[in-house]
Design brief:
By secondary structure, the chain is an alpha+beta fold. The protein contains 18 helices and twelve strands. The chain has a four-stranded antiparallel beta sheet, with helices on one face. Strand 2 and strand 3 form a beta hairpin. The protein starts with 23 loop residues before the first helix and ends with a helix.
Length: 455
C-alpha cells in the first residue's frame, strides 16, 4: 500500500469565498516569488505523483543535504506578521490560554475572511476547510464505533471542550471589543473549530534552544507556506531547519527523480496522526507506532488478582504511594513501542510495587522509594528482551493488564487481519473506516507482541 499523506487537501478550483483563481497553485507560486521564497529548480509542487493532495516532487536527482526551498521569516503567517499584529500585541495578556494558540487563531480568523488579505493566495490552496477530516468532525457515534479503545475519542472530547471554552471566554469578548475587525456572525464557533484543525494539521512549532528548554514554554505555532505542502511519513527524506533570518527544507537522504519528498512531524504514533492530522500510516509503515495501557487498568488487574480484603487494601496503599512518587495518575498511560516500553521507569516501578508483599512494601516505603542505583537501573530498562526476563508476578500482572486493554476494543485482531488481507473488502471501506482500522490494528499488534513476551 502507498504511504498515507499528511492530510488531504481540497480539490483545485475557485475559492468558496470567491477569492481563488482558476489555478490556485500558480497563484500561490507567484505569491511565493513576491514574498521572497526561493524554490529550488530541482523540485516541483504538484498533485500528480503525490500520495494525495498537493506534494513536493523531485524534478531531478537530489543528494542528501540539498536545500529544497528557503522561506524568509516575513513570509511566515503568525500573530507577529498578521495585519492585526498590533491589536494582538496590545491584548496579549487577555489572550492567554491553555493551548497558547489563541493569538494565531485570531490572526487566521481575520486573514482568512478579509477580502484584501496579503495571505489570500496561500489560503486559496484550500477552497474551504471541509476537506479536513479529523475525528473531531466525525459524528460522535461513528467516532466511538470506529475508535473505541484507541484513546482518540477521549482526546477529541477534551479538544472540543477546550475549543468551546476558548471561543466563548476569550475569542468572543475580544471580537466584541473590536467590531470594526471581527463579526461573530462571520467568525463563528464552527469556523474557529475548523481553524483549530487547520493549525493542528499544518502549523509548525519552532524548537526551543537547548538552554531555554527548562525555562521557557513551547514557542507558539505558526503557518509555514510551502513547508506545509510536503506530506508526512515516518521514513521521511527531508527536514525543516530554522535560522534567525529564514527557514530551509533540506534533504536528509538521496531522492530519485520523480519521487515524492516527505517531511516529518517527529515520532508520531498512528493515533496521534489521526487525531491531529486526520490520517494514519498503513501498517506496517509507521515504525513510530505505539499502544497504551491505561495506568488505572494495571491497578484494576492488581485488584482483580487480590484474593482477600487485606490484599485489596494493600494494592490501594501501593497505588497511593505510586501516586505520591508521581509514577502513576488517574488519567496517565504506559506507552509501548515496537521495541521497548517508552515509559519504562513508570511501568517497571509500578509493576514492582504492585507485586510486593506487605513486608517488602513497608521496607520500600521506609526508604521513600529509593533503592540501590544498580538495581534501579536494571529494573528501569524495559526493552523487549528485558520484558521477557521480568519476574513471574510482574509478568502475570502485565499479561492481565494487556488482556483488559484488548477488551476495550470492539473487534479482535484476527477480524482486522482478515479485513486487511482481503483487498476487495478493504477497498469497500470508507476512508474513515480504513484510517481507524490502521490505528486499531497497529495498537493491537503491539499489545499481542507484548502478550507473547510475558506469557
Amino acid at each position: 500500500m502507498a504511504s498515507a499523506p499528511k492530510r488531504p487537501k481540497a480539490a483545485a478550483g475557485s475559492s468558496a469565498r470567491g477569492k481563488g483563481s482558476a489555478d490556485p497553485l500558480s497563484g500561490f507560486l507567484a505569491w511565493c516569488g513576491r514574498a521572497g521564497v526561493e524554490l529550488s529548480p530541482k523540485v516541483r509542487l504538484s498533485r500528480e505523483g503525490a500520495v494525495a493532495g498537493y506534494g513536493m516532487l523531485a524534478a531531478e536527482e537530489l543528494e542528501a543535504g540539498e536545500v529544497l526551498f528557503t522561506i524568509p521569516r516575513a513570509a511566515l503567517l503568525s500573530q507577529h506578521t498578521s495585519s492585526i499584529q498590533a491589536l494582538l500585541q496590545e491584548a496579549q495578556e487577555s489572550l492567554q490560554s491553555q493551548s497558547g494558540w489563541v493569538p494565531l487563531l485570531l490572526a487566521l480568523l481575520h486573514e482568512y475572511t478579509a477580502s484584501n488579505s496579503h495571505w489570500q493566495p496561500y489560503f486559496s490552496l484550500w477552497e474551504d476547510f471541509r476537506s479536513l477530516d479529523h475525528p473531531m468532525f466525525w459524528p460522535e457515534e461513528e467516532r466511538g464505533r470506529l475508535l473505541q479503545g484507541t484513546g482518540i475519542p477521549e482526546a477529541v472530547d477534551k479538544d472540543l471542550a477546550n475549543i468551546h471554552l476558548e471561543y466563548t471566554s476569550i475569542i468572543l469578548p475580544f471580537m466584541e471589543s473590536h467590531p470594526n475587525v471581527f463579526d461573530p456572525k462571520l467568525h463563528t464557533l464552527e469556523l474557529y473549530k475548523q481553524l483549530v484543525a487547520f493549525v493542528m494539521a499544518y502549523s509548525f512549532q519552532e524548537p526551543l534552544e537547548e538552554e531555554d528548554e527548562d525555562e521557557k514554554g513551547p514557542n507558539p505555532p505558526m503557518m509555514v507556506p510551502v513547508a506545509d505542502i510536503l506530506n508526512h511519513v515516518a521514513n521521511h527524506n527531508a527536514n525543516l531547519e530554522y535560522s534567525p533570518q529564514c527557514l530551509r527544507m533540506v534533504t536528509t537522504q538521496p531522492v530519485g527523480k520523480g519521487q515524492e519528498i516527505f517531511n516529518t512531524y517527529g515520532q508520531m504514533a498512528n493515533w496521534q496522526l489521526l487525531h491531529m492530522y486526520g490520517f494514519a500510516e498503513p501498517y506496517p509503515s509507521n515504525t513510530n507506532d505505539t499502544a497504551d495501557i491505561q495506568m488505572v487498568t494495571v491497578r484494576k488487574a492488581a485488584l482483580q488478582r487480590a484474593k482477600s480484603e487485606a490484599q485489596q487494601q494493600l494494592v490501594s496503599e501501593q497505588w497511593d504511594f505510586l501516586c505520591q512518587l508521581e509514577m502513576v495518575g488517574e488519567e496517565g498511560a504506559f506507552v509501548l513501542g515496537w521495541d521497548e516500553v517508552l515509559t519504562e521507569e513508570e511501568l517497571s516501578t509500578t509493576l514492582k510495587v504492585l507485586c510486593m508483599s506487605e513486608e517488602e512494601f513497608k521496607e520500600y516505603k521506609e526508604q521513600d522509594g529509593w533503592e540501590d542505583d544498580s538495581e534501579e537501573e536494571e529494573n528501569s530498562t524495559l526493552s523487549n528482551e528485558a520484558l521477557s526476563r521480568l519476574k513471574t508476578p510482574c509478568k502475570k500482572l502485565l499479561y492481565d493488564s494487556v488482556l483488559l486493554t484488548l477488551e476495550s476494543y470492539r473487534s479482535d485482531l484476527k477480524a482486522e487481519q482478515d479485513l486487511l488481507n482481503n483487498k476487495e473488502a478493504y477497498e469497500k471501506l470508507s476512508r474513515r473506516e480504513q484510517q481507524a482500522l490502521h490505528v486499531r490494528y497497529g495498537q493491537k499488534r503491539i499489545l499481542h507482541q507484548l502478550l507473547e513476551l510475558v506469557h
